[in-house]
Amino acid sequence: MSEPNDKGAFQADIPADAVQEALRSVERIARDAPAEAGSAGVPVAVEPAAAGETQDPLAREVETLRTQLELSTAKGRETLDRLKEEHERFLRAAADLENYRKRAAKEREEVQKFGNERLLRDIFPVMDNLDRALAAAPADDPLAEGVKLVRASLEQALAKHGVSAFSALGEKFDPALHEALMQVPTGEKPPGTVVLEHARGFKLHDRLVRPAMVGVAVEPPDAAGTPVKG
To answer: What are 64-80's pLDDT values in tens digits?
Structure first.
């Protein structure tokens, strides 16, 4: 019996398909090793989250609601400012309308009260002529009584429309109510006193329509022609 040339060497016949199966088994073990290591508590490298990305869904929801709240607050403030401007514009328009209404009412009242002023100015000379006729008529003239009645009726009709007559005789001259037509030298009345009246004055609702036409007293001159001062 012959001995082998290499002592201690182990020789065996292994089928080729067994060798292939063994290689495939080693590849499977190597491929599954990282997953098993991660499940066994061995640290496994994880890619970090992108910058600014929140991993918690609740935190992302809160951040979204906060952003919406800030946007809604800004829009609400803008709307409130616009409403304030519209409200102020409305108040100004209402005030202007109220002022216009008051002004229009006042102008309408003025027209109603003083619209017939031009007509009255034409009637006043008629009153003056009646006054002159009565002043020139004899006391016992029967025609004077008729003139007095006509004058009284005309004054009553004018009074219904707010017209009133006033006399300036004996009063202090007032340029706001009287119109001086002449100066009357006299020592009987103090200077500046109305001593003559050519025509009475008339008012319409306390507004002067025509001043009284008067003569005003002045100091009489002395023998040398110099006015005497009292």
So the answer is: 888 888 888 888 888 98
